[in-house]
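HUMAN: You are asked to prepare a plain-text protein record giving the amino acid sequence and the C-alpha cells, both parts labelled.

ASSISTANT:
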Amino acid sequence: MKRTSDASEGLNTNHAPSQDDAARERRESRGTRQNGDRHRTQWVLIAAFCVGVTAPATGWGQLIVDFSSGTTISSISPSMTLSVRNSDLVNPVSLGGVNFFVKVQDGGPTISTTPASGVDLLTGTLFSGLALGGQFAVGTPTSLSQGWGVIAFPVAASLAAGQTKQLGTITFDSFPTGDWLLDFGDPSVGVTAFADASGNTIDVNHLLGTVTVVPEPQAYALVVGFGLLAVALAKRSLPRSRHSKG
C-alpha cells in the first residue's frame, strides 16, 4: 500500500513571501530610516544650539546684524528693532537657526528676562512660524546680558541675495539717560551666530553700537520749567542789584 504524506504536508503552513509582501517590507524599512534621519537631524540641531555656537566670525561675514529702528528709546518708546542682511548679492542663504546674544553696558537700560518680553526673535521676524519649540534661553538671562536661541525646523528660514529681514526686537524696562553700548558678540556672554540647515556656522558681522535713552516728556517739561523760573528770578534780581549800587 502506497504511503502518502498529505497529513504531514497539511500541517506545514510556512510559505515563501510574495512579491507584494517583500515590497511592503522594503517601503516600511525605508520609511523607518527616513524618520530616524529626520529625528537625528532635529536632535543634532537642538544639541548644537543648546550647547551654543560661539565660534567668532572671521573677516566680513555674509550676514550683517544691524539696527532697523529705535536706537533712541524712552519709557514712551521702549523698543528697538534689529535686522539681518545677506551681504552676498548673488547667492541666497538658508538659515536653520540663530544663537542671539546681547550685552548692555553696565549701568545702562535693563532688559526683561521673560522670553519675548525683553528679546523677541519670533514676532514679525524671519523665523516667525518656523521655530521648533519656540524661543529658548541659552545660558541664564540677566537684565544686562542675555542669550536666546531659535531653531527653524523642518523648514529653514531664508534670505535672498542682498535681502534684509527683521531679526528681532529688544524692549527695555529701565531708562537711565545717556548713550549706552550694546554688544552682540562679547565673548564673556556669547557671540551671536547663525547656522545653515545642516547646523554649520555662518559668519556674521557683529554690530557694536549704542542706544540713546532720552528723558520722558514730563522730565523735559520740568527741565524747561526750572530753566524759565531761573531766568525769571535772575531778571527780577538784576534791577535791585543796580539800585543798591546807585
User: Anything to note?
Assistant: DSSP finds three helices and 15 strands in the chain. The first strand starts at residue 63 and ends at 69. The radius of gyration is 32 Å. Confidence is low (pLDDT under 50) at residues 1-13, 32-59, 219-226, 241-246.
